[in-house]
Design goal:
Elements lengths: L1 E8 L7 H9 L8 E8 L4 E6 L27 E7 L13 E2 L5 E9 L2 H10 L9 H12 L9 E9 L4 E6 L8 E4 L3 E5 L2 H6 L8 H10 L14 E2 L4 E5 L5 E5 L15 H19 L6 E4 L4 H17 L6 E5 L9 H11 L2 E5 L3 H15 L7 H14 L4 E3 L4 H5 L3 H13 L3 H13 L1 H6 L2 H4 L6 H5 L24 H12 L1 H13 L4 E3 L5 H8 L7 E2 L2 E2 L1 H6 L6 H4 L11 H6 L3 H9 L10 H12 L8 H17 L1
Parallel strand pairs: 14-15, 14-17, 15-16, 17-18
Antiparallel strand pairs: 1-4, 1-10, 2-3, 2-4, 5-6, 6-7, 7-8, 8-12, 9-10, 9-11, 12-13, 19-20
Helix pairs in contact: 2-3, 6-7, 6-19, 7-8, 10-18, 23-24
């Protein structure tokens, strides 16, 4: 995992090397182990590689291993690639980046991991291709030389990389299938710049202006990361499963290389055991690949189905291999038993003999870390749960764990959110499966824990007339309140399409941003087995009744993990998730802080009727306002602090 940055000036104008190095330094948290650059004069193909600071030459004398410091490089280059490394695979200098082919004609800066690099390497070696390192980055270069940009279709992993092909004077930028790793870019007629994080683009001269369409979606519906645009006007992200080709004249072509379809059958033609077997094999394969590392690997553990499944399988692999490595787990806990998952976490610990580590996020800690959270997240957020994850990743790094497995993606694929069950019932009615609807409806009513966990206020958002019920528009002044959503996230009667959109647009992308920024803020690589693309394709082919049945969510996972999960977890219907006592904090320790933020707001009054907002917040604190949840007020609060930080 690393930080990457690049700039190409189309008119041949020389790069401002000092400004570029300062911009890259803002990403130091992403790659504390190494720093490297390569600069090109694209018209002639001439290039020079450099360290961030002068060092001695390494043996063997490979083209990409620099012999100069950046201060020794000339100033007539019009393309530069920079890299900050977090060493995970091949910790030697041979894993240095930017990395090149042996002839120096193809260069790469890469953030992420290609987990099946060993299998690809063997395939390439059969074709007579030789390797000089043990890194997955070299496999990407050799795969590109062998198969062109179609090589991405062979990768299993997460990545955001840029390849400069000196032969064709072309820059190719690619992002992984599910968008696990970030890739931001900005362009005009004069230059193209890209980065792992937005702050580096701002440092290179992009003016920080708010993208008002996305601001509207966020304020009214809490939507984030659902388009290729960002909160910063003009700064975009490469969509998942896409790559960009940038030509010398500044032309940019965006291409999709992968997609998947959701099965829309209610019941499949095969037995439950078949689906359970396919799922278990796929999850085991995904976890085994993601345990490949030259540094310690641990796991997030919330006590839910997804993270518990990962920990149980990963610890079993360690035992099977007879290693002395003790798998460490990291959990956020609370003294308030309503939000505390320790009873479930301890079930996993007893079964697996892992070494548990705990953090205890607090309202005070949230306030003290708020500015750091905003600085690293770069775009707004609307939940304090992001802070719990922040503390978990910080604890992992302090314990010497550099790679963390986590369960993101399981809920979106397997119908884990209880809203999906409501949509499933509507789907059965639409298809006139009356008997099945009756069975499922009775099962849901009988599941008391299920009903308790339903957030009706949040659920209203998914109705086509939600803004009329909630009336959030009244906080927004004319004409801003008459804007329309950039995309409609509400449910319109197609469960399969809704599941896919939650994976690709409305739910997962923002969680992946939180995961990446929180982990990389502490120099930790997060790996997500449920987002193995082969597993995603397999689960997508399962019928609805493998995801939801008789009041159970994630039905196939519960069946597949019968021999691996503690029964107390496998059979639980309540869902807490990675949350904090947010309402308690906001009604208690944070209430004055939030109200004073509204009272002294500088940015909000341009888009929000602050007087009405304060009035509604007072009603919420006195519990007279029942339609608004804590997240409504938190998003206005975070927005004001975000604007103070970046605008």
């Amino acid at each position: 995992m690393c930080g990457i940055l690049g700039e190409w000036r189309f008119n041949g104008e020389g790069i401002d090397i000092k400004s570029f190095q300062e911009a890259l330094s803002l990403l130091r948290h992403r790659g504390p182990d190494d720093e490297g650059y390569v600069l090109f004069k694209t018209s002639s193909g001439r290039w020079e590689a450099a360290w961030g600071e002068k060092r001695g030459a390494f043996f063997p004398p490979l083209p990409f291993l620099p012999r100069k410091g950046l201060e020794e490089i000339g100033k007539d280059h019009d393309l530069i690639l920079g890299h900050l490394r977090l060493a995970i695979i091949d910790l030697s200098p041979l894993g240095h980046q930017p990395m090149s082919s042996e002839d120096g004609e193809v260069w790469i800066v890469h953030n992420g991991e290609v987990y099946n690099y060993l299998e690809l390497r063997k395939e390439l070696e059969k074709d007579g291709i030789e390797f000089f390192s043990q890194s997955d980055t070299e496999v990407i270069i050799k795969a590109y030389l062998r198969w062109g940009i179609d090589c991405v279709k062979r990768f299993n992993g997460m990545w955001a990389f840029a390849i400069w092909d000196n032969r064709y004077k072309k820059l190719i930028c690619a992002r992984d299938r599910l968008g696990i790793k970030p890739f931001y870019y900005w362009r005009d007629e004069r230059r193209f710049i890209f980065s792992s994080e937005i702050k580096a683009l701002l440092k290179l001269g992009v003016l920080p202006k708010v993208e008002e369409d996305l601001l509207f979606d966020y304020l009214l519906y809490g939507l984030l990361d659902h388009t290729e645009r960002t909160f910063f006007k003009g700064i975009k992200r490469i969509p998942p499963a896409h790559y960009l080709e940038i030509e010398r004249d500044g032309r940019v072509k965006l291409c999709r290389y992968w997609d998947f379809d959701i099965c829309k059958e209610v019941k499949g033609c095969k037995e439950d055991d078949h689906y359970a077997s396919v799922f278990l094999k796929g999850l085991e394969r995904a976890i085994r690949l993601r345990l490949r590392s030259d540094v310690p690997v641990g796991s997030c553990l919330s006590g839910g189905l997804d993270s518990s499944s990962i920990v149980c399988i990963a610890s079993r692999f360690h035992r099977m291999e007879g290693t002395s490595v003790v798998h460490k787990t990291f959990s956020a806990c609370f003294e308030d038993k309503r939000y505390d998952e320790r009873p479930y976490i301890q079930e996993v610990v007893r079964k697996t003999k892992v070494e548990p580590c705990f953090v205890f996020p607090s309202a005070r800690g949230f306030r003290e870390n708020l500015q750091k959270l905003i600085w690293h997240q770069e775009e707004p957020f609307s939940s304090t749960s992001i802070y719990a994850q922040w503390e978990v990743m910080r604890k992992a790094r302090r314990e010497g764990v550099v790679v963390m497995l986590d369960g993101q993606g399981g809920d979106e694929q397997l119908g884990g959110y209880h809203k999906f069950y409501i949509f499933y019932l509507l789907e059965l009615l639409k298809r006139r499966y009356i008997m099945r609807f009756a069975i499922e409806f009775v099962s849901v009513i009988a599941a008391i824990d299920f009903l308790k966990s339903l957030n009706l206020r949040k659920g209203i958002h998914y109705l086509p007339f939600s803004d009329k019920i909630l009336g959030v528009r009244r906080f927004l002044p004319f004409p801003f309140k008459d804007k329309k959503m950039t995309s409609d996230f509400r449910y319109h009667g197609d469960l399969g399409e809704r599941i896919k959109k939650d994976i690709t647009l409305y739910s997962l992308p923002v969680l992946l941003r939180y995961e990446d920024k929180n982990s990389m803020a502490h120099g930790v690589e997060a790996r997500l087995p449920f987002l193995d693309h082969e597993l995603v394709e397999e689960v997508a082919s399962f019928p609805f009744d493998q995801k939801m049945r008789k009041g159970w969510t994630k039905y196939v996972l519960r069946q597949a993990l019968k021999l691996h999960l503690p029964e107390k977890i496998r059979l639980r219907k309540s869902k807490i998730g990675f949350i904090t006592p947010e309402e308690v904090w906001i009604r208690g320790e944070l209430k004055d802080y939030i109200f004073n933020t509204f009272q002294n707001a500088q940015f909000l009054p341009m888009y929000v009727d602050v007087d009405k907002l304060k009035e509604e917040f007072k009603g919420y604190l006195s519990k007279k306002s029942s339609l608004y949840s804590s997240s409504h007020f938190l998003r206005f609060f975070i927005l004001e602090h975000w604007a103070r930080t970046f605008l």
